[in-house]
Description:
Elements: E1 9-13, E2 27-32, E3 39-44, E4 59-66, E5 69-77, H1 87-108, H2 110-115, E6 123-129, E7 137-143
Parallel strand pairs: 1-3, 5-6
Antiparallel strand pairs: 2-3, 2-4, 4-5, 6-7
Amino acid sequence: MSKLNPQKLTTTFGTGVTYSEPIIPRRYTLTHSDVTAELFLNIALKFAYDKITTMRDEVLGEWLNTDNKYTYHVYLYVDGQFGPATAAIRNEIFRRELPLALEAIRYGDKLFFSAHPELDNAFIIVHFNSLSPRYNKKENWGTFSQYNVPNK
Length: 152
């Protein structure tokens, strides 16, 4: 697993979203550049579909509240542009790189977590979306406290 280099992370906030509000709706779109290894985090009221490429290797996330408990949901498109044929490779890549993505989300929105420290203990539910039952899964990936990168 790669460790987050905060200098390679750019965070932008959409209209209606501040460093501390709202919790819901608060949606995250994390994309990257294969060339520069830069990460781009957009935090907005809606997902930044305009930032998504044909590779479909983005990480989408949002806060949900069920029974007065916050959970963070991540959505990954495992099949990709070539469909189920690439699902095994993409599944492996997503699983290897997801800890870095979660570190980037936690670090990129660190002032939000400072304003809402209880969210560091909210469960992260990852939806691996695939047409193949083998890769179409929903898993608990712990809490954001596990992905907290010290300030550099």
